[in-house]
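Show me any protein, fold above all:
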Amino acid sequence: MSLAPESLSVAVALPREGVAVLTVNGPLDLDTAPVFHRHLADQLRNGRRHVLLDMAGVPFMDSSGLNAILRVHQEARGLPGSVHVIAPAPAVRRVLDLTGVSLTLPVSDSVDDALALVSRAEEETS
């Protein structure tokens, strides 16, 4: 039995220009992935090039959730921008590791660590 999309919550913080931190709570699965993707894509459409995903509150993620992250990663790269995963729960980290996504996307322990990576990348490109 799958959970309704209402079981997913996404809070957005804007720590600085061009950067959005999305705190995600709830499972990322077939039912919730479309809502999750809209939240991510909205950030890019609103001028945020770097999307930081605090996933400590995500107990489960299937291929639908993974696909939503990868689609936005592709869009962000063209800006140029980035997608970062922060503090994934053990089950989510396992999915990221088994699929090799953790080799493609930065995975950080904290929002501060991810913001430091964004700053470093921006300095390198300026």
Notes: Confidence is low (pLDDT under 50) at residues 1-5. Helices lie at 33-45, 63-77, 90-99, 101-104, 111-125.
